[in-house]
Amino acid sequence: MQIFDLEKQGLRALNEQLHAQSTDTNQTSWEVINAKGSHSIAVGLDAPIAVTVKGSTGYYCGGMNKQATINVHGSVGPGAGENMMSGTIIVDGDASQYAGATGHGGLLVVKGNASSRCGISMKGIDIVVHGNIGHMSAFMAQSGNLVVLGDAGDALGDSCYEAHLFVRGKVKSLGADCEQKEMRAEHIAILKDLLERADANAKPEEFTRYGSARNLYNFDVDNAAAY
Amino acid sequence: MCGIVGLFLKDTSLEPQLGTMLTDMLITMTDRGPDSAGIAIYGEEVAQTTKLTVQSANADRDFASLEADLSRAVDTPVSLSRKATHSVIHAPSAKANQIRQALRELRPDMRIMSTGDVMEIYKEVGLPEDVATRFDIRKMSGTHGIGHTRMATESAITTMGAHPFSTGPDQCLVHNGSLSNHNNLRRKLRREGIHIETENDTEVGAAYLSWKMQTGSSLGEALESSLEDLDGFFTFVVGTKDGFGVVRDPIACKPAVMAETDQYVAFGSEYRALVNLPNIENARVWEPEPATVYFWSH
Lengths: 227, 298
Hints:
The complex is a heterodimer of chains A (227) and B (298).
Chain A: E1 2-5, H1 6-9, H2 11-19, E2 29-33, E3 50-54, E4 69-73, E5 88-91, E6 107-110, E7 123-129, E8 143-148, E9 164-167, E10 178-181, H3 185-197, E11 208-212
Parallel strand pairs in A: 1-2, 2-3, 3-4, 4-5, 5-6, 6-7, 7-8, 8-9
Antiparallel strand pairs in A: 9-11, 10-11
Chain B: E1 3-9, H1 18-28, E2 36-42, E3 49-55, H2 59-63, H3 66-74, E4 79-83, E5 86-92, H4 96-106, E6 111-116, E7 119-125, H5 128-134, E8 144-150, E9 165-168, E10 171-179, H6 182-191, H7 201-214, H8 219-229, E11 232-240, E12 243-248, E13 257-260, E14 264-268, E15 284-286, E16 294-297
Helix pairs in contact in B: 3-4, 6-7, 7-8
């Protein structure tokens, strides 16, 4: 286990050391202490390493992540896991605005609540929020799955494309061109897998699925298999 | 960007440290706005005494004989405590209006930053650390306070464009964001007879709240109606004689995080501003909801 004191050693040194890890590194386990709300912790990683952050972080924690597993023992500021490609980020506390924005892949788990614009423009990432999400979440969401065990705020899924949105609780309002969808066996299977991986205690059957009504973009039914 | 910090103390034993705590919080937010900085501190009340904080671009000239000139003009002894470009005039409350009038005649170039029983406002161009040092903010005690560091977007970098803005006796406002209907609203408020000095958008926000309260709204009602009448982005933090409040626009893209313990309620544009507060590990930490007015008072 490599222990890194962020206050003493600085952010640039941390990210340089983490970036220096390759696929076959021996230093697979890292712990970052004294996070104190710092920005850009563990951004741009590309190795199968595990990073534990003690304390809450600022902006963009785990942004652009590939392969790595990042566990934050605290809350995260705006843009956590922004544009992540693969790997896993687990936030024990809450997430601020636009968690998982534009994410292409991987799994982002928020054990508390996520704020506004969660999963905005998501492009393949899976996001599981144990609590509630704020307004304008999944705005223009293109692909991937957003799973919410609690409630969703205003304008869920506004102008969304083909992302799957699953909400167990209440939805304050749906955004433009977002509608309730039928829950089919394939969706139950997706949910079951994600809930297990996110250590979430909920049954897939308790959720309602939402998605695009496909009136706002040039959806062509002949291409349905591609979505 | 812009950075806001606010601290409302519940535990009176922390009051001597208010200036230091608020200064440290504001310095942490320096990279959110390097243009100007300001702090409003709510200090001790002296019975039947009003504080007027004044500012001068030519402080040596304007402050030199001000105490004697004012005392003579209002026929009552007033006292002056100077800090760099600012001075706080302590005068009998009954004479407050006369003092304002006398100041306009004696020192027409001088600006009145704030009036009230307890509030003092200090603001200047420069970094938070420099501004706080200049006005010796660390030594100030108080019940609550608000700080702001500005990244100018809507108007020039000047002392008068710095925050906090006074909205009335013992009331102030700081803002992160930008208002898009401030020109129209400024014209409307000027027609209503409200004095607005600068082209700054936040000053219009402050004047709007003042006008609402002058026409019968409570602060809470004024903040509620700001959600209807102000167009643009805003996270506002307001201070009053015995409390402080927070409101964010319905889109809420300007950041805000709050923390509450038995000892205090704290506001920061980022969590970083709060990390050195006592017992923050066990505080309730949350993001204020959009279009929701929060208020705490003693």
